[in-house]
Amino acid sequence: MKIQENISLKSYNTFQIDKKARFFTEVQSIQEVQKALRMAENRKIPVFILGGGSNILLTKDIYAMVIKMNITGITVQKENQNNIWVKVGAGEIWHDFVQYAINQNWAGIENLSLIPGTVGASPMQNIGAYGVEIKEVFDHLEAVNRETLEVEIFNHDQCNFGYRESIFKNTVRDKYVITHVTYRLSKHPSPNITYGAIKTTLQEMGISEVGITIDDISKAIISIRQSKLPDPKLIGNAGSFFKNPVVSLEHFEKLKALHPTIPGYPQSKEVKVPAAWLIEQAGWKGRTFGSIGVHKNQPLVLVNYGDGDGEAIKALSEKIQTDVEKKFNILLHPEVNFI
């Protein structure tokens, strides 16, 4: 395990923001995580855990021990007639794991194809897309307690999952390092193609709903995402910058009276409203400001076209929040973490 000093993090975050880490190390085992935490404690400096860097916006240099999670491995823990429990290292690339599961015909995460980031982040923010969330296949995870250095296990209920939320984003934030996640996947695929443009895309690809496979679904979703979202290797971004807001039914009905075309997805006594629609209606889609801007195809995505600054992107996001709140009385909440 090597400790580096004053290392640029530009290649370690998908926004491609050029900020530095005071100390930087990569870990490949629980023992190396514990060793890095001890070293940070001995030097009296804070710790920052880095996965795929796809859900962060760097606004300044990080005076910390940045620990890059590279713990890999995919192993079957147990199985029965219907399900298989798979333990995955937190450093595995999420999309690679999805493709691995599809190749084994293990179902449940095919709708989450092409989501950027690593496995360790999946329960942290309860990643979701196209009608599926991680909480539906999550079994348990292992995490190192930063204070005691002991390995602890969190089951489904203990994670307290919510919309893009878990206990690791609030009450125990910065207190644990997730090292492994175990998922319960299905041996008997039950395709979920009701959300968004999945059905239409399958038809365009010439794939019949009869005998549809999880690989078909994955390919359709990859096609949809690639048509709407910029490749972070080409244009710096962190995917969806804001969460889709959820408002009361009463609030939505008032908005509907003022804006008849506003889309909404009922959830019990509340309605989820697409943040992308709100941002576009507020006039932000496709706007550029020097090296940063709002993507021309997907207003939910803020982008860095070159040498953009994290503080400038943060300021842009705040202006968007202000305009959307003024027009719709809805406050957008960032999905991206400001560092």
Automatic annotation (TrEMBL):
<dbReference type="Pfam" id="PF01565">
    <property type="entry name" value="FAD_binding_4"/>
</dbReference>
<comment type="similarity">
    <text>Belongs to the MurB family.</text>
</comment>
<feature type="active site">
    <location>
        <position position="164"/>
    </location>
</feature>
<keyword id="KW-0573">Peptidoglycan synthesis</keyword>
<keyword id="KW-0521">NADP</keyword>
<keyword id="KW-0963">Cytoplasm</keyword>
<dbReference type="InterPro" id="IPR016169">
    <property type="entry name" value="FAD-bd_PCMH_sub2"/>
</dbReference>
<feature type="domain" description="FAD-binding PCMH-type">
    <location>
        <begin position="16"/>
        <end position="188"/>
    </location>
</feature>
<dbReference type="InterPro" id="IPR016166">
    <property type="entry name" value="FAD-bd_PCMH"/>
</dbReference>
<feature type="active site">
    <location>
        <position position="335"/>
    </location>
</feature>
<dbReference type="GO" id="GO:0008762">
    <property type="term" value="F:UDP-N-acetylmuramate dehydrogenase activity"/>
</dbReference>
<dbReference type="InterPro" id="IPR011601">
    <property type="entry name" value="MurB_C"/>
</dbReference>
<dbReference type="InterPro" id="IPR006094">
    <property type="entry name" value="Oxid_FAD_bind_N"/>
</dbReference>
<comment type="function">
    <text>Cell wall formation.</text>
</comment>
<comment type="pathway">
    <text>Cell wall biogenesis; peptidoglycan biosynthesis.</text>
</comment>
<dbReference type="InterPro" id="IPR036318">
    <property type="entry name" value="FAD-bd_PCMH-like_sf"/>
</dbReference>
<feature type="active site" description="Proton donor">
    <location>
        <position position="240"/>
    </location>
</feature>
<dbReference type="InterPro" id="IPR036635">
    <property type="entry name" value="MurB_C_sf"/>
</dbReference>
<protein>
    <recommendedName>
        <fullName>UDP-N-acetylenolpyruvoylglucosamine reductase</fullName>
        <ecNumber>1.3.1.98</ecNumber>
    </recommendedName>
</protein>
<keyword id="KW-0274">FAD</keyword>
<dbReference type="InterPro" id="IPR003170">
    <property type="entry name" value="MurB"/>
</dbReference>
<keyword id="KW-0131">Cell cycle</keyword>
<keyword id="KW-0133">Cell shape</keyword>
<keyword id="KW-0560">Oxidoreductase</keyword>
<keyword id="KW-0961">Cell wall biogenesis/degradation</keyword>
<dbReference type="InterPro" id="IPR016167">
    <property type="entry name" value="FAD-bd_PCMH_sub1"/>
</dbReference>
<keyword id="KW-0132">Cell division</keyword>
<keyword id="KW-0285">Flavoprotein</keyword>
<dbReference type="Pfam" id="PF02873">
    <property type="entry name" value="MurB_C"/>
</dbReference>
